[in-house]
Amino acid sequence: MGYFRPGDVALRREVLHGEPWVVTPTRVVQDGPDLLGVFTAPGAEFGFFPHPRAHHWQELGRTRWTGIGKLQLHRPGDAYSVDLYWQGEERRFAGFYLNLQAPFRRTARGFDTLDHALDFWVPVDGDWRELDRDEFEEMVADGKYDAAEAEAIQRTAKEIEAMLTARTTWWDPKWAEWEPDPDWPVPVLPDGWEDYPLP
């Protein structure tokens, strides 16, 4: 399976308990053997699959991505992405958000993963902190993750804590200066988005 080109639309699909759950169209910024970078644009729509467990965005009636948009950096094999956020009309860089998720798996139309609830926030003007511990524990108790998955997620969290404490982060801070191409339209879900198979 080849790499995507900058500007291509890649579908970020979450798969829960072996079944597609939710999908978001993203715009490819960079793709290669060491890094996949995609941009989630304001207004990008979510596609919800029929699933025994309703997605929380679906329950809240949230159908599109809001805010300025986020850039997501993925390294193959990492159980997290590094997301960059900006604020305000002047697009001031706010910080790095480490989103724990299943290592991405390429598909013909994009990539598959699953959000793991735990996150870390690294603001430009303060100390890093862990987020959503209560939500993660609730999801473990509710069966979203089994015991082995929960243990693996906890290990990833400890590895991230050690990296942030030692200040040995791997990503280039110059990504904070990145801006989306103004000619990129908001990506939409293509026809047949519900039907492409799992890898």
From TrEMBL:
Lineage summary: Bacteria, Bacillati, Actinomycetota, Actinomycetes, Pseudonocardiales
Domain DUF402 intervals: 56-167
Record's protein name: DUF402 domain-containing protein
UniProt keyword Chaperone present: no
A family per Pfam: DUF402
UniProt-recorded Gene Ontology molecular function terms: hydrolase activity
Species annotation: Saccharothrix ecbatanensis
Source domain of life: Bacteria
Swiss-Prot/TrEMBL keywords: Hydrolase
Gene3D superfamilies in alphabetical order: FomD-like
